[in-house]
């Protein structure tokens, strides 16, 4: 019987040494190639690790990232691409899917970290940490008393938008802190006992009693522009917005106006309609806003978790299993 040629896997040169120990297995072998390698055009499978996207965003692509994207476009026999992230809304992924390439995300790899970041942002706003840090820089002793007295978190209501792995973790953490949780999700099926649940199109109905609006949904046709001026106006004046979803889930100009007008208490924002956030954005200078550079899912254990997900799928792929 003629041995099958090795499967050609396109990956970054930085990721290759970490992948190699996983790929030594019986049966059909795996050969690694990189952008610039003449064999890259014959790659059947590709893996985008975090180092490939690096500091690129959907809107501003660095040369190293573009070089990998060009290799993907030139690989006309590419059948499958696995990516380190959860979202698949980058143009290159959409382009490859239209071409018939299977593109898979790393669901679960960063769920816990993103949820922890969202709750950290909520706690920072609740306890007025930005104001305390500015007072520290002024060497000014400004106790949280009188008009600055924080509200108890216990008993407040949070609306979590999106009920996947991240949303569910956020919900459990908030419940542990004593908050009441309501949910807006795609299907509207009950998120759990005693959790009021609506479909995305019913979001406005559950906002008037919310102190926190936490966005943790994917960017889809149903969620693009989901939170606009009408939804923001339905929130109480003291409410805060937490966004670890995607920038285009919320109308950013409407959010800025609501914050400037004192219609909202503040916001923790990890994602924006353009990234990097332009230097002239008013969000940078707002005292009640925490700007995070799309870093909610970053942690030192993420690469290994993504690698485990990819290698498990690769083994099933090579065995022609679903």
Number of domains: 2
Name the strands of the widest sheet in spatial order: 8-7-6-9-10-11-12
Outline the biggest β-sheet: 7 strands, parallel
CATH-assigned homologous superfamily of the largest domain: NAD(P)-binding Rossmann-like Domain
Shape: elongated
Count of discrete alpha- or pi-helical segments spanning 4 or more residues:
10
CATH architecture of the largest domain: 3-Layer(aba) Sandwich
Strand content: 5-15%
**What's the number of extended β-strand segments?**
12
Explain how this protein is built:
- Helices cover 30% and strands 15% of the residues.
- It contains ten helices and twelve strands.
- Helix 9 (252-260) links the parallel strand 10 (240-243) and strand 11.
- Helix 5 packs across helix 7.
- The longest helix has 17 residues, at 302-318.
- The mean pLDDT is 95.
Which helices and strands occur, and which strands form pairs?
Layout: E1 7-10, H1 16-19, E2 30-33, E3 45-48, H2 50-53, H3 63-74, E4 80-83, H4 91-98, E5 102-104, H5 111-126, H6 129-137, E6 157-161, H7 165-176, E7 180-185, E8 197-199, E9 212-215, H8 229-234, E10 240-243, H9 252-260, E11 266-269, E12 289-291, H10 302-318
Helix pairs in contact: 5-7
